[in-house]
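Sample intake sheet
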Amino acid sequence: MIQGLEERLKNSAVIKLRGSAISRGISETGLALVLAKNTGKTLLVFHGGKEQASSALEKAGFETKFVDGYRFTTPEMMPFVERAYRDLNSRLVQTIKGYGKKCFGMKGSELIAAESMGEKYGGSVGVPTGVNQECLELLEKEGRMIIISCIGSGKGELFNINADIAAGFVAATLRSPNYLVIIKEAGILRDPSKQDSVIPKMTLAELNSMELEGGMLPKRASIDYFLNNGGSMARVLNIYGLASALCGQERGTKIVRQG
C-alpha cells in the first residue's frame, strides 16, 4: 500500500466497466456513473475496449485472437489498440461531462507500470508491477472521477493490460473498500440459463472452484489478486446496481476471502 493514501481514500471506489456496455449504451453507462458519483465517493473507473480494439486491428489487417482470456497483442498492434482505447475513453468522458459531472480521462500508461507477460501472449500484453503515486493524488481532489484506459508502460514500451487485471491491482494497492466488477448479468449466476439465480454471497474458494471461460478468467484472477493482497470484499454486478451498491444495498454477488 502506498503510504498515506489508504486513510485518505477510504471513501473511494474502484470500478471495472465492460467495454461493450460503453459502446452499445454509452449514455446509459455515463448516467450510471453519474448516479454512482452522486453517492459522494471518489471513483476510479477502468475500462477495456474489446470490440473497438478488434475492429481497429481487423481494419489494419491483424487477426483477432485471445489466449486464456487475454488479447494476443504484438508490438506492431499496440498503436491500434492504444488508439481504440483512447477514443472510447474520450467518448465516455464527454458523455459524463454532458450530464454536468466533473470527470477526467487518463491514459493507463500514466498510472500503471507494467512488464510483458511473455511471447505466449504476443509480447505486448502486460502485467501491472506498480502504480504512480502522483497520479493517485488526483483522487483526493473534490469531485474527481477518473476514467482510465488500460495501457501500461515499462522500459520505454507500452503494454496492453487486461482491464480486469489492472483494476484489481490498483484496488489492492489502494486497499479500496469498494471494488466492483461490472458484467452483463445481475451477478454471478448459479444457473447460467436463469437470470434470477444470482448468488448473493460466495467465498473466493467457491469462485475459484467454478468452471469459467473466456473473459471471466481475468475477472476471477483480478478478484483473487485483490482479496489476497489486502482487499476485504469484491462485488460482481451489472451497471444498473452500481449506485445502489455504493449506497450500502445488497446488489449482485459479494465475494469475500473467507466465509
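Comment: The longest strand covers residues 42-47. Residues 78-98 form the longest helix (21 residues).
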